[in-house]
């Protein structure tokens, strides 16, 4: 006997409902001993509502009331305890990456160092790519950073320098990204894309990447969406294409063309990131995927730190003046070259203290990086974690831990790292340090990112003065899984000459 269409649909709906109820009960029971929002115990509704209401900051900060381990989804936990993360990310950890990492995939057909899930495969690939990500393939990566700092200063003087009777507003949200994009593409290809030539989004990367990262942030937290968006048909239908005229697809096309040209018979590997990947045996597809990751991860995260640092200096006169004073003294005492070297920058106490509080401000990735417990499970702080449970970091809560950073944790105050004991400073730095990852998952581009931040902030503050154009609206900030900024309009003037 055949069923008519309404009956068939009703039956399918009823069976799906029964399946959902059964799996929800099973899921709830498995982690029922771990506290968290009620909706998170059986569904992803808490994460969905948090995202669509734009309440990520408030919601994830509120989780501390549940303790150090909190349930935010049927199989997802987050922690605000740096020591738990240190255990999970230790060199001998048996945790593995959760499929959450699939949401950060910039190449449609090839996994990269960031989203490969198998530990052994990850370790092999990291060995092959480390020299490319560290900038060592370029000889001295500091020379590359210096060249782009000079281009940034030149662009500002030519196009954005205001005077007493003339305002030329600059969107530093865009400028910071032009700088980091040209640094990373110079490291990757031996030549920058040219964003700093005239202060333009050459290929439309910035125009499109924020939209992609917003979708990726939502997809990462919700497996159903993730499996749809990053399936073969999903990437084929909705993903960027190398034939696109603008955006991530256009950059993908440029990367593919460059890789193809380099792999032509007789082509000699060059002294840049791509050349290093080739020398270490990566296939053309692997080179494409790693280079796209290098551009994406190496530009947006560093730009977020640079503009965040400048924003909080501009809005904290005490810190702004003190850093200016330290720079002036270093120049007058001939303690620094031009541009400053990373080694010289590391000897300036206030400059070193100033980037640290930036991590008390929303960082680029506010939560995530989920790792799955081994099949036999694990015990953390006396709590049993069933095998396969994914645990991620709650960066927003970690960086606002009053027990670690003090009761004035919301205040941008570099002095907290200078006025405390050596033991206390080490505790604070260790808590922030784990946000770079640990063990096999330590950020491969960490040293380049820190070098960029230290050097460019010093040089900008050495030669220019900065002021917000509209203090009532300093920037547009979007805090989802990641933090994004745009329309950071500032007035830049020539500073008193120091050398």
From TrEMBL:
Binding-site residues, heme: 443
Family recorded in the similarity comment: Belongs to the cytochrome P450 family.
Pfam families: p450 (PF00067)
Record protein name field: Cytochrome P450
Keyword Cell cycle annotated: no
GO molecular function, one term: monooxygenase activity
Alphabetic keyword roster: Heme, Iron, Metal-binding, Monooxygenase, Oxidoreductase
Cofactor(s) required for function per UniProt: heme
Source domain of life: Eukaryota
